[in-house]
Amino acid sequence: MVSPDYWSSQKVIPVVVIKNADRAIDLAQTLVDAGLHKIEITLRTSGALDAIERIAKAVPDAIIGAGTILDVESANRAIAAGAKFLVSPGSTPLLLDHLIKCGLPFLAGCATVTEAMHFVERGIQVAKFFPAEESGGVNFLRSLSTVLQSIKFCPTGGINPSNYKQYLELSNVVCVGGSWITPSAFIEECAWQEISKLAREI
Fold this sequence. Notes:
Blueprint: H1 4-8, E1 12-16, H2 24-33, E2 38-42, H3 48-58, E3 63-67, H4 72-81, E4 85-87, H5 93-102, E5 106-107, E6 109-110, H6 113-121, E7 126-129, H7 137-145, E8 152-155, H8 164-168, E9 176-178, H9 184-188, H10 192-201
Parallel strand pairs: 1-2, 1-9, 2-3, 3-4, 4-5, 6-7, 7-8
Helix pairs in contact: 2-10, 3-4
């Protein structure tokens, strides 16, 4: 398991929903050129794994990850496609065991104090906090920092340009994940300049 420094090196991770893998390479290069090397492709579309594979082969400066990892099978498919990190919205004991054993950096999701305590018991130093806004947001994480000081978080879910800096100011937040940087409509329209502008703004 990697240290929090791995995640804190990039404060905002684009969370990408991509339908057409033909757009993947241009999208990844746009984000890398704008300074965002870690990119999460969510496994919510039929083209997601193809997109990960294309980026892994064609954009060496991209650190491409797979999100919406729901089980061991999806984790294995993402790794085979070339994913360099894995992100899950939650975890089961079986999935968590597999994420730990696979050797890649990962963010397993939690939304409660009890779940965070389970992660601490397993030696996990950084977790995904999801869905962030619906689960108490900044106030919840601020309260949690006084109780559980050995675990930090990457909040996702409801993160946007108006609130992401509030999260990053918290002592127990190393980075945030956000989909606002890569709107699906922009990807479909190949609006790379617009995506570059959103990426450079952060």
